[in-house]
Specification:
The protein contains two helices and five strands, in the order ααβββββ. It is of the alpha+beta class.
Amino acid sequence: MLDYVDFLSGVMTAVLAYAMFKERDEPEEDDILENDEGYLNNYEDDDFGRTVTMSCQGCRKLKRHREIEHNLYQCTKCKRLVDLRRKSS
């Protein structure tokens, strides 16, 4: 029959696998962006400047970017700068 050691190691393996692969309780930021009514227009004005949803090259996902200067944005997650200013020739 099944020994206690084998049974307990099987239970511990199942608990560990469940803990690793279960979904987190907190919603993913991408889900928040899709469900948030303020981001239907892809931008929002607040006290800290304009916030725009755009594709981040560092995160490789749609993320919120905060406008630091005119047409200079910073990702709120990875802090990468996106420069959309015109180059003066």
